[in-house]
Amino acid sequence: MSRHPLARRALLVALVAVNSLVPVAAQSGGDPHQHPFDLASDASGAPLSIDDAVKLALTDQPILNGREATIDAEEQQAVSAAQLPDPKLSAGLKDLPVDRGEAFSVRDDNFTMFTVGISQDFPRGDQRRLKGERKRLEAATDRYGLDNDRRSIVRDTALAWLDVYESEQALSLTHQLSAESDLQVQSLQNDYRNGRAAQADWLAAKVEASLVKDKEQDWQHHVERMRAALSRWIGGEAQRPLAADLAALPPPAEFPRLLAEVDHHPVVAGLQKQVETSDTDVELARQAYKSDFSVEGYFGYRPSYADFAGIQVSLGLPFFTANRQDRDLAAALRQSDAAQDRKSDALRELHAQATEDYIDWHHACERMSTFDTDIVPNAQRRVAAAQAAYAAGRGALDSVLSARRSLLDTQLQRLALAVDAARAQVRLQYFASGSQVPVRTSSTVVGD
Q1: C-alpha triplet 372, 375, 381: angle, nearest 5°
Q2: Terminus of the chain with fewer CB atoms < 10 Å: N or C?
Q3: Contacts for 69 with CB less than 8 Å, ≥ 6 apart
Q4: Continuous segment of H or E residues that includes residue 367
């Protein structure tokens, strides 16, 4: 390695220039390893923030439109289900003789008549009211499902945005690490040619630089893939450049309050409506022990005799209930128990998920605090010390580059923690009552 102070300063200036320019190039689309599917750097328009992505996802969303159409259909069916069946019109020829002298005559026999009648069925007990109530409960269940769909879309869109953000920030940092690895290879190559470094050290640096470039290409693949995943929710808007700052979600509620909010989650409320629907099915099964009846009025025309008119009532006789009504009632009762068990299981699952996410958020915040107060400052001081020693002729350029690589690795870890904390906050917002789209922003990328 050159011992001349001017050469040292020149190399140090080049290193600092790489540190300052590489992130800018990565953010402005100047990446020499840009892939054909990476359209973000070529996209135009305002930067896409996390709340912009959520609002786009909630606009003209097929999932929500389909759910609203289902609710409208069920509300219409609730009205029709509570109505009486349509009346029935009947007409015919009765008691037509088929033998002897009066065969096929409509006038010679006094029993022969043309009839026309109308009848109306009356379902048993409260059956009509209960059928209408059941459809209204199904509509109410889907309304809670619609609320849950909105929360799920907000959560999944925000998580997809965070995936793109993490990948792009990691790509920028890895690109910087790649540039510094190239500098290290160049430095060791010069030392090897001048007899001041072993060939094995130079080759080891080349292998390390190749591995870093491979990691850079891997992050590029993640960027392309995560943008494709984001397009699931916002279509072509997923190719817009992302906002430079990570959205700062509101902190979650205190843990006891959070669990209390879980008890009122739309998933739980929807399952409660399913329990009520099952209870209605039980009442409908009980109605089967009552008799349906129908009323019919008719008029009989006899061409050569006096005309007839009449009315008759038909009544169902539920005498043999052991293998019909009893079985249906037993099944309805078991279905009601199953609905209650599904609600209890879902509540337990939601409590567990909320607890896990709260632990993840708290743990990530604690680790970020350690990184911000201890690890990152020490890594920055190590870089400053290595640069000062190299400029004074008391250290090697390899030490400077090693310190820089260590700082960039630390920044990648800090970035991952920040995104993990944001992911946990997004998932916790899914459980919160009246969850809102994030509106504030703050930077989470650790600077040099």
Answers
A1: 100
A2: C
A3: none
A4: helix 325-370
Per the DSSP assignment, residues forming a β-bridge with 295 are 120, 313
For 299-308, the pLDDT digits (tens) are 988 888 888 8
pLDDT band at 8 (very low <50, low <70, confident <90, very high): low
Q: Which residues contact 47 (CB under 8 A, 6 or more apart)?
A: 240, 241, 242, 243, 244
- Residue 314 sits at φ, ψ, to 5 deg, of -110, 140
Closest CA to 26 of 238, 214, 172: 172
| DSSP3 helix / strand / coil % (the chain, rounded to 5) | 65, 10, 25
- 143, two tokens: 């309304």
Question: What does pLDDT average to over the chain?
Answer: 84
The pLDDT of 171-184, averaged and rounded, is 86
Query: How many Cβ atoms are within 10 Å of 312's Cβ, its own excluded?
Result: 11
Helix or strand holding residue 315 (H, E): strand 308-315
Strands (E), 123-195: none
Q: Is the C-alpha dihedral spanning 272, 278, 281, 282 positive or negative?
A: negative
Residues in the chain: 448
- Domain range list for the chain: 6-84+123-288+324-442
The DSSP symbol for 433 reads T
CA distance 263 to 261: 5
Q: Hey, is 20 helix, strand or coil?
A: helix
Cα 102–chain centre separation: 79
Domain 6-84+123-288+324-442 CATH class label: mainly alpha
Res. 186: pLDDT tops 70: yes
DSSP H/E element including 117: strand 113-122
Q: Tell the residue number behind the tokens 């011992």, with chain if given.
A: 3
Q: What is the DSSP string of 254-294?
A: PHHHHHHHHTT-HHHHHHHHHHHHHHHHHHHHHHTTSPPEE
**Residue among 319, 293, 330, 331 nearest 125 (CA):** 293
Instruction: Give 23's pLDDT tier (boundaries 50, 70, 90).
Output: very low
Question: Which is more confidently placed, 78 or 104?
Answer: 78
pLDDT at 427 over 90: yes
pTM of the model: 0.80
In angstroms, what CA-CA distances link 439 with 53, 144, 246? 12, 25, 11
The string of pLDDT tens digits covering residues 245-299 is 775 677 888 899 999 999 999 999 999 999 999 999 999 999 999 989 999 999 9
Q: Are the C-beta atoms of 243 and 441 separated by less than 8 Å?
A: yes
